[in-house]
Amino acid sequence: MQIDSATAKQLASLQDNSRIRNRDELLQEMINNGSTSDFGVILQNLAGSSAADASGVDSSVLPSVPGVSYSDGLLWQQLGVTANSDDSKLQFVSASHHSSPKSSPTSYDDLIQQASQKYGIDEALIKAVIDTESSFNPSAVSSVGAKGLMQLMDGTAAGLGVSDSFDPAQNIDAGTRYLSYQIKRFNGQVNMALAAYNAGPNRIAKLGVSTDEQLMDKLGMLPEETRKYISKIANARSKYES
């Protein structure tokens, strides 16, 4: 039997739609059944990423920072746990597919480059944190008292030797140093470090996870702001990557 080209296109479209529905139905069925372990595999396939293996977190060998308590968060450490984990995972999948337009140079590129080289943190990541935290406003003050470009809490700023959180040079240097501590603490797992920067390291350590992949399975145990924070950083970072 011969099939004309218009009919062939319709059949192909129906097959594609069927595959999409089957994928969405599979995700929904996994959500309804609470199958979070399988969800992590699907999440990797959809997001096109995988997390590297890492050893467990041992607080006894963590780098000490004079005057800084790892229970301190920066911006949202006072928030509680809200919403459920399955919704947050779906929100993260959606955010990971969002592409942002490339950004123009900022007024703080020289300071960011210096901090990047000093602490070994990618410039695009530093810019993404500043963008998400303060929209590059050096005078920003949050509702809980976090200040400046990278939103330093007073106690954290003092422990890092900052005398003026509104001074861009001091703020960027200290904020990047603090972020580098978190990345080292969590064995290079960037999303875990970002969650710690936002919600406080002890809260992340108590989750009992050691990789970013495992963190995604327990996002529902974190404040809603922190769940959104991770995806916001990912979107912002894409604007600054060359």
Automatic annotation (TrEMBL):
PROSITE patterns in alphabetical order: TRANSGLYCOSYLASE
Entry protein name: Lytic transglycosylase domain-containing protein
All copies of domain Transglycosylase SLT, residue ranges: 111-210
Keywords: Lyase
Assigned EC number: 4.2.2.n1
PANTHER family according to UniProt: MEMBRANE-BOUND LYTIC MUREIN TRANSGLYCOSYLASE C, SOLUBLE LYTIC MUREIN TRANSGLYCOSYLASE-RELATED
Any one GO molecular function term: lyase activity
Family: Belongs to the transglycosylase Slt family.
Organism: Paenibacillus chibensis
Keyword Lyase found: yes
InterPro entries, alphabetized: Lysozyme-like_dom_sf, Transglyc_AS, Transglycosylase_SLT_dom_1
The keyword Isomerase is assigned to this record: no
